[in-house]
Amino acid sequence: MTLSAVARAAGVAVPTVSAIFGSKKGIVAELLDQARFGQDYQALVRQAMQVSDPADRLSFAASIARQIYESEIPVQSLLRGAGMLAPELASLESERESERYEVQGHLIDYLYQARLLQKGLDLRSARDILWTLTSRDLYRMMVQERGWSADKYESWLKQTLHRLLVRP
To answer: DSSP character for 118?
Structure first.
């Protein structure tokens, strides 16, 4: 993939593609964001933000993870293949995971402020658990490789997050 090929396919000049996306990495990032963060994602986030109980809001982490990973399956396989050919594209996934880790800190802080975190669980460990359990790899292993339904994955994830993070 070259910027000129993208520009040619879009019927625009190369400087236009460069101005909008900056690079091949920018194009792939936009493709991923469009797949991951569409209307269904936005609706789930709005619903989660309307829930005032921190433990109930935690359940939305499972629903949001499922929605993102289901929607990105076609684009994700493209990115994995492209990352082998272009190292700058491989770094995109690492950047996205760092962003996901940072964003999830807000939910953990919310649980902590409500005094709902498991006794003896520090903030960093709680965030590490949330980040790990809501990972793309776990979704891929359970749903795509082990054949779990997305419903079973989401239900299991909600129960597991509550069991590990929320005080009984």
So the answer is: P
